[in-house]
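Pasting two entries for a bug report.
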Amino acid sequence: MGATGRFALFLGIVLSVWSALHVYAFLRAFSIPALARSMPPAARASVFLVLCLTYPAGRLLARWAPGRVAWTVEAAGAVWMGVLFLAVAMFLLADVVTGFGRLWPAAAVPARTAALVATAVLSIVAVVQDARGPRVVKHEVKVPALPGGRKELKVVQLSDLHLGALLGERWLGRRVAEVNALSPDLVVVTGDLVDAEVGPVEPLVPELRKLSAPLGVWGVTGNHEYYAGLERSVAVYEAAGIRVLRDAWSEAAPGLVLAGVDDLTARRQLGLDGRTLDRAFAGVPGGAVVVLLSHSPLLVRDAAARGARLMLSGHTHGGQLWPFVYLSSIAYPFQAGRYDVDGMTLVVSRGTGTWGPPMRLFFRSEIVEVTLRA
């Protein structure tokens, strides 16, 4: 199957799941008699269609007619997406407890009512949590030596900004100021700088160019760069002064090597060549401290075996909305935080921005600061 066929299959699956989630949530919500009495069937059908179509319509408007109306529709649809996911999780929990209303029928309505209340509360918490913005998460990693006899070197990581219609210049300006205030020696952007379309991100290049570090600003592509258009996305990185490592390495300073790979998840989805680490590590000088940038936390043990001392990743968002961390961890066992893997330190960012719902449940977004100590 070619790349177009794979994408069509993926899109078909996504739309089918999206529709099924709405059907399940509505059936469960309107099995509550009080709610059913408050809205006649024709009104329910209208609300169903509006909610089901709001997010896709917002994305289309953002692409073809950007502006305040498009932003409002997409933002409303994105919040509804998060509410829907939480509602499905809560209703499913109620169904498990009551045996889908068959083993314990008397408890079915109270359990579903409780699920609806829990959805509302968790949705408010998640919106507030996201509105607080990213926190700075700090790690220290010991290495044999650092360039020029330094005792320490500070690396600041941004990941999964998902810039576009919802996260624009003002939001980005705050993140750039926060990064520069940390006085990093090195800044890395580990993919998904772009969300769905490159067009809304291109005007943000002047703001991105304000990122500053003595040893430079470096980056790798994420899966969304592939979806939005790889070459045009890479051009945005380069215009912003971000040096993109595409299955390659470079010395940020003598003895400190940055290696980077194009996104492993997108390559797998699109059936592209997977021997990416072979090229990224080819010819790396012996004795150098190697930091690997990989958007997806995959091939982790392979990276450690090739001599990487630190691997910086993102992609998972730490699940972003509980309980989806459990689904994400099936494909990505290294989900969020710090791991020690065969002598290599892996740090997986929860993401600086958000994808889809502007919501975070239980964990805030992150700017990661890693201090390398000799």
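Entry 2 (this is the one that rendered wrong in the viewer):
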Amino acid sequence: MSLIHRRTGAPTGGQGREAGQTLVEFAFVLPLFLLLVFAVIEFTFVFSGMLGISYATRDAALLAAEAGNTDCADFVILQAVDSAVTAPGDDNRIQSIVIYRADQNGIEMTGVANRWTRGSSSSCAGMTVPYVLQDEGYPEASRCNFLAGCGTGHPGLDTIGVRITYTHQWVTPLGGFPGPGFGGQGGGGFTLTQSNSMRMEPVL
């Protein structure tokens, strides 16, 4: 009667080398794969934030054009911006809102702007917003919404614009990169800016 012995135990030398090689390759590929996944996720949130503040500037510019030179027009604009920036965005990350006069090409004119920064609240006619006026270079009463113009410097309707500066905060570990952070953007996030302008609605 013959006995058949089966060998069990550790793999042969060739099998061990293959397993070790696979492990090393996995160790090299895994960080790159995770980097790609995090980058896609981060880009999605950044793109969503850009779309959100772009929509907010468009909506606010439309209201600014309709509000014209009425009292508290800025407060209507500021409230519109806060209402338009929704999840996954956060209106608390808005650094500043600039309401400016633009030329016929929609380019911001130098020194003709109201700059509001997020901070303690301001009120007007029962409206309260979490912003403080830092620079007033474009008072509401100075805006021209008359088709025939408003005298010197206002030959026709004003073009009014709204610019939003927004801080995007990292939602993935990419912000934890040493030094300036991933892509040189810093560990605390980075700034997004969008603007939109519109010709004022005429008062005949």
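Dev reply: Rendering is fixed now. As a check, the viewer should reflect this: Residues 167 and 191 are 5 Å apart (CA to CA).
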